[in-house]
Fold this protein.
Amino acid sequence: MFFENFIPKGDEEITEVVSGSSGSSIPVNLSRRGFLTTTSAFVVGVTLAGCSQAEEVVIDPTPPTPAGPSPLTEVKGGDATPSLWIEIEADGKVKITCHRSEMGQQAWTSMTQIVADELEADWAKVEVVQALGNPKYGDQNTDGSRSVRYNFHRLRVAGAAMRQMLCQAAANHWGIELADCRAEQGVVSNSVNKKTLTYGQLAEAAGNLQVPAEDQIVLKSRDEWRFIGKEISSLTVEKIVRGEGTFGQDVQREGMVYAVIAHPPRVFAEVQSFDDSQTKQVQGVVRTVKLPDATAPALFKPLGGVAVIAKDTWSAIQGREALVVEWSDGPNKEFNSEPYFDELSAAAKNPGNPQRSKGDAAQAIKDASTKVSAEYRSAFIVHSPMEPPSATAEWNGDELECWACVQDPQTTRRTLSELLQHDIEKIKVNATWLGGAFGRKSKCDFVVEAAILAKEVGTPVKVVWTREDEIQGGYYHAMAVQNFEGGLDADGKALAYQHRTAFPSIGSTFNPAADEPGPFECDLGATDAPFDIPNIQVEAVKAKAGVRIGWLRSVANIHHVFGVQSFAAEMAAAAGKDQKDYLLELIGAPRIVDLSAENSKYGNYGADIEEYPLDADRLANVIRKAADMAKWGRDLPAGHGLGIAVHRSFLSYVALVVEVAVDAEGNLTIVGCWSAVDAGTVVNPKHVKHQIEGGVIFGFSNALYGKISVTEGQVDQANFPDWRLMRMDEAPKAFEVEVIESNAPPAGVGEPGTPPAAPALANAIFAATGKRYRTLPIIGPDDYTLPLNSDNA
Amino acid sequence: MAVTININGKDETIDAAPGTPLLWVLRDHLQMTGTKFGCGVAQCGACTVHLDGEPVRSCSIPHDALDGGKVTTIEGKEGKAAKAIRDAWVNLNVPQCGYCQSGQIMSAVALLEANPKPSDQDIDDAMSGNLCRCATYMSIRRAIKQAAASL
Ligand code: FES
Ligand code: FES
C-alpha cells in the first residue's frame, strides 16, 4: 500500500527460479499443476479413524490427459495455485503455507482457517509452514492490517480448487461424475456407491490433475463455512505456553557467535576513531568489527557503528560497555525535539498544502457566531515490541541464509541483495516468529548488520539488539503539532472546520527532500475526517526530521485522530451538546462520503473505493452500538466520566467508549472500555476482540506515558521505565468488544483499535474533571497522577 | 570457572564469565530459549524464572550467585497450578505474539502456588512487573481467574 512507494525496489523479480530459492519445507512444483506429495508411493493403505473404511485402496495417479499450466496464477489478490499453498501427505496431514509473518495478530491461524475451510480439511490434521521470502507468494509485507483482506479471496480459491481436484481424483477412481462426490473434513464420499477415500489416499492422484479455472470452482456459501468466522483456537498458543517456538532472538546455528553493536548516538554520525583495547580484555569477546557509516537517505540501511563479537550475548554487551568510540557530529546534532514543538506550532498557524477543501472554511470561521480553536501536540513514540530486533546470518560459500523477526522477508531479501551487492537468488530469508513488531520489524536494518558481520567473521552471527538499541535506534512515530479551528452557528451547528497538521514525514526516511506530511499520511485520520460540515479545509504543514521516521501501529492516525476526535468533543462542549450526539450530528446523514468531491485524492488504504466506500452509516452504527454497550447517559459516580471516539482506519470502523475515575489527587483509573467494531467479514472473532483490546491499550499506553524526546539529535530515553509502557495495574478494569456481523468484504483489525484510544480517553478525562488534555503523553514517564494543575490542561 | 546449577531438576555445569546473568546462561549456554530477554534491567519480566519456587528476574541474577538454589524455567515448570494456568492460557488464547508469555506464565503460576484464590488487587500486584506490549492484560486477568476457579 502507501509505504510501498518508499521501499527500495530492485529489478522486479518476475521470473522465478524455484530451485535455490525455495526451502525444503516449501512444496516445490515447477509445472504449477496441482501439488506434490512428500511420498513417492501411491499405494496408500491407512486405517482411518472416524471412517468406516480400512481397506487398502490403490489410486492410479495417472491423469486422463496431461495437465496444463495453472489457470489460477492471477486471481484477485494474486496466485491461487493450490500447490503454492497446500501440501497433502499420504497420511492425510495437510500442510498450509503462511506467507505472512506471525507477530501476534494470529496470521498463522487466520490464513490457515481460510484455506482449510474451502479445502474442507480436517482441522486436527492441519499444520502451518512459514514461507520463505519469495515473490512467488505475492505481497508478504505484513503491515497495513491487510493479511486477511489481501488474501481472503485467493486463499479461498486455492482451497476450493484443491478440494475440487481431490473430488475429481476420487470420481476418476470410482468412475463416477464429479457432481456425485462430496468432500467433508478430509474425506471424499459419494452418493453412488457410498464409498469414501481420504485426502491422504487421493493426494498424489489429485496432484497430477489439471487445476480448474476459477469459473469452474465452486466456493462454499457463507452458511457452509466451517472455520471462517469461527473462534478457532490459535495455532501458536500450545507452543507458547511451553516456551517453544522460535523468535528472532531464539535462533541457534552451529558455530554461531553473538554480536552487540555500538550504534551512533545520532543518525548519520560517523565513527571517527575507536579504542577496543579494554573490550578485548573482556572474557568471551572475540573481536570488534567496524560497520560501514550510514549516509542519507536512511532507508533500511544499518546505522553503522562498531560491533563487538563474542561467545555469548552477555560478553558482547560487556565488551560494548568497555568500548570507546569518537563520533562525528553528523547532520542531526542541531535537532532538539522540545523547542521544535514551538517551531511546528508557529508553522501550523499559517496555511499549508491543501489536502481537502470544501467551501471557504477561513471565511466561514470568521463569520461564525462561536469560534473554537485548539492545538494538539504529541511526542515521538517508539515501537518497543517485547522482542528487541534480532537476526542471524550464515554464509555457505556465496549462499547467504538469514533468520530474523521480519515483517517482510521479501523486502529484507531485496535490501540485502542491494546493500551487499549480492545475487538475490543466492539469498534466503526465513521469517521467524516475531515477538511483536508494530512496524519496527518492517525495517530490516538489523538483518543487514547480521549479514555483513557473518561475512566478515566467517561463522554464523546472531545480532542481538538490546532494549537500549531498540529505544535509541528506532524509526520513530513522528512528533506532531496540529492546529484546529471551528465555527459554529448560534444553535451550535458546525459551519466550518479547519485542520492543519505538522509533523516530519515517513517520506524523509526514503528521500531527505521530503519535508512535509505526504498525502498518504494525511489520508490517515486528517483528510478522511468523515464530517458533514459545509466548509472544510485540511492542510499539511512543512516539518523537518531529525531522526529516522517510521510507521508504527496505525501510523498518522494516532495523532490525527487524537486531534480530530478531541476537537469534535471540544466543539460539542462549545455548543453545549452531548458529545456522542454531537459526534453523530457531525458525521451526518447515512451516506457514502465522497472525498473526491472535496478536492481530495483520498487513497483509501490502497483499496477500491467502490468495494470499500467510506460509509457514514457504518460509522454511526458503531457509535450507537458502543454507546449502548456503555449505557451512555447513565448517572455516574462523582469523579467518573465517559468519553467516546470513532474512526474508520484500515477500512474497519471502530467506536470506543471509555469510563474513567479521577480522584482529587489526580489518580486515574480506567474503569471500563466498550468497543464496537465493524471489520466487514471476520475470519476469527475471538482474535479480532484480542486485537482491539490490545490495540486500544497500546494506544492508552502511548497516550498516557509514551514520550521519546531528542536532545542534540540523540534520544534521551534508554530503557524501561524512562520509556514507559502501561502495566497490568494501570490497564482497564473491564473491557467489552462487540464484533458487528457483516457481509461486507474483510478489512483490517491489527491497527484500527489504536486510533480512537487516545481521544476517547482524553474525552473521558474531560468529562470527569473538566480538564482538556491536548498534549501527549498526558502523564509521562515520571508521574503517577494526572497533572491537574498543569498547562497541558 | 565452571559452576554447577540445578535447572529443572538437572545439574548443569556452566563455564561462563563470572557475573554472567542466569538469563544468558540459559539462553546462550544451554540453548533454553523459552526464557526471554526483554530489557536486561529487571523492568519487564520477560526473563522470569523460579528460584526455589519464587519468581525472579533471571536477567539480573548472576549465575554464579545462586548458592545452590534450584532454578525452574518455563520448559520445566509442572504441577497443579502450572497445568491450570497453561490450560486457561490455551483456552482463552491469552498470548498474542507470545514473547512476554513465558514470563507472564511463570509469574502467574507463582501467584497461584502462593495464593490459589487471588483478588483483583493480588493479580495486579503479582503481574505488574510483567510488561506486554501486545497488551494482553485483559486476557491474562481473565485466565488467572479461570485457572484459580479450576483449582
Ligand atoms: S529481561 Fe529481565 S526483566 Fe526484562
Ligand atoms: S503477547 Fe506480545 S508482548 Fe505479550
